[in-house]
């Protein structure tokens, strides 16, 4: 009985922690001044090769982004590559400019979560995530890739 009195509070605390951590509400969210303009969960896109050659794959956000209500843009994504000499870049196009690169990450810095922000360039933009892969060391039919997951574009007032 004494054993049960000691174990029961620990067990209840553990169960409460499990239920709380499995909830649908994420502790990381957007503030009142932030609005999600585009979000894609899971795999956004990838560049894949099975040999020793360079390859660039371009992912275009399907819709134009209307930014008239915002002063800054924040972009978040998770990147990963199985090869050195890989790059993921974020670019935009507007009526007045083309292929403006606002962020780029390469090589070993590519693996992980990335978050950056920049000033609104125009009231309407077209966004692009560009994945570049150039394996320097590979064997015959060896599979190499660079991928981006969980892309989120947020407008900040």
Question: Which features would summarize this protein structure in a list?
Answer:
157 residues; mainly beta; 4-stranded antiparallel beta sheet; 1 helix; 9 strands; 13% helix
Structure, described:
This protein is mainly beta and 157 residues long. The protein is built from 1 helix and 9 strands. It has one helix spanning 2-21; strands at 34-49, 55-60, 65-66, 72-81, 87-93, 100-106, 112-119, 124-133, 144-156. Strands 2, 3, 5, 6 and 8 form a 5-stranded antiparallel sheet that branches. A 4-stranded antiparallel sheet has the order 1-9-4-7, with no helix packed on it. A hairpin with a 6-residue loop joins strand 5 (87-93) and strand 6. The longest helix is centred in the N-terminal third of the chain and has 20 residues, at 2-21. The radius of gyration is 21 Å and the shape is elongated.
Question: What would you say about this model in short?
Answer:
Helices cover 13% and strands 50% of the residues.
Q: How can the largest sheet be summarized?
A: 5 strands, antiparallel
What fraction of the residues are assigned to beta strands by DSSP? Answer: over 45%
- From the N-terminal CA to the C-terminal CA, the straight-line distance is 59 Å
**Discrete helix count:** 1
Mean pLDDT: 83
| Helix percentage range | 10-25%
What class do helices, strands and sheet pairing give?
A: mainly beta
- Outline type: elongated
């Amino acid at each position: 009985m004494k054993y049960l009195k000691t174990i029961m509070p620990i067990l209840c605390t553990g169960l409460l922690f499990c239920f709380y951590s499995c909830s649908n509400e994420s502790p990381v969210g957007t503030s009142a001044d932030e609005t999600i303009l585009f979000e894609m969960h899971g795999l956004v896109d990838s560049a894949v090769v099975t040999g020793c050659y360079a390859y660039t794959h371009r992912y275009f956000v399907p819709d134009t982004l209307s930014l008239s209500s915002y002063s800054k843009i924040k972009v978040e994504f998770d990147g990963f590559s199985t090869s050195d000499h890989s790059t993921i870049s974020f670019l935009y196009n507007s009526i007045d400019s083309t292929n403006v690169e606002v962020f780029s990450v390469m090589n070993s810095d590519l693996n992980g979560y990335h978050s950056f922000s920049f000033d609104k360039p125009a009231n309407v933009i077209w966004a692009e995530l560009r994945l570049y892969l150039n394996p320097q060391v590979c064997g015959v039919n060896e599979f190499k890739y660079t991928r981006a997951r969980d892309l989120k574009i947020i407008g900040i007032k």
